Amino acid sequence: MTDPAHSALFARHRAVMPDWLATYYRQPIEITHGEGRRVWDAEGREYLDFFGGILTTMTAHALPEVTKAVSEQAGRILHSSTLYLNRTAVELAERIAALSGIPDARVFFTTSGTEANDTALLLATTFRRSNQIVALRNSYHGRSFTSIGITGNSSWSPTSLSPLQTLYVHGGIRSRGPFTHLTDAQFIAACVEDLRDVLGQANGTVAALIAEPVQGVGGFTSPPDGLLAAFREVLAERGILWITDEVQTGWGRTGDHFWGWQAHAEAGPPDILTFAKGIGNGLSMGGVVARAEVMNCLDANSISTFGGSPVTTAGALANLTYLVDHDLQGNARRVGGLLLARLQSIAAASPVVREVRGRGLMIGVELVEPGTGEPSPAIATAVLEAAREGGLLIGKGGRAGNVLRIAPPLTLTVAEAERGAAVLEGALREAHAATTEGQRA
User: Fold this and answer.
1) pTM of the model
2) Ordered DSSP codes for 117-178
3) Model confidence pLDDT, tens digit, residues 77-118
């Protein structure tokens, strides 16, 4: 039975927040505190967190090292702005520049991934003197006016108005679309030809191609390794920049690599890299890394009031240090591999699962109507609800809203992975049974 006070809070939320501000679950929950990979709601119920605040609590809830760094910094000074020197911001920028793989790198801090992508677009269009951008179909790059303008997922793009001219190419989804039947090598070749064709039709000089190595909101879809490297070669012929959107794929989440672009490294590093989410472990932190020539191309004044604040950089620096010192990328690879294999085994016996995909601790489970293969957002919603009832929080995405998004903190243990998989198995079974019963009725 729902607590009346909780119902009252939900009513107040709906009365004062925008109608388009979505919440999960028929009765949304209020998360009050967390520890490690667990969180608790206002009614005292415990959950295993497999979504981490949309891939943001990357390391752990209430990580002592981060909590201590934030608390100590807050006790000294909360804010100063980029007009003053900030020691932790400099130290964090040095670490990120070295880790980025971009030569002669410069780092600019923002407060979100959306703002980071906005900055990357500003840099690219200014450097190239062009407002033309190439993006992947099914992509998502944020909720600001400019980032919506390059988002290739119509369910997250409420307006066609944009200051940019965006051209969309194939390559973000391997298992759907006109190139599905091809081998990986043939798929890459077809996508490269598509890119060449689009660039040939562009009436002007394209500024940049922006791509998520794994499409996050799009349902954790990805191309074969090497596709973006092949794209890079085509771009380099024309001087076009490559922006890698690492808001969800950075910091070792994919297990195999520290950055998603490194699965496509044959043609060298990107020109611009954007990051956010996990680096702050819940703090509002994002940023851009670019080679100096590109980063320094702006010839107007610019600052950031809140980007790289003393508190957020102190927390992010402590978080990054913990992540590297404890090899959480390796843990994502090992535990993520076990979880992926377990979910694929579960999927083999479930008629509502079309595909389990992903790498590291970034796993998507695509759900469909049994027998038809049509995307089923209704079944995805039912599984989301059943998983919550079982004590597991997961996400949802995909263009049709039919993909379960599984992205726990990178400190996930084998026992927690097994427990989460068991809950999800029961939720899939329950949702399928309910669907079958509804069809009979």
Assistant:
1) 0.95
2) HHHHHHHHHHHHT--EEEEETT----SSHHHHHT---GGG------SSEEEEES-S-SSSST
3) 999 999 999 999 999 999 999 999 999 999 999 999 999 999
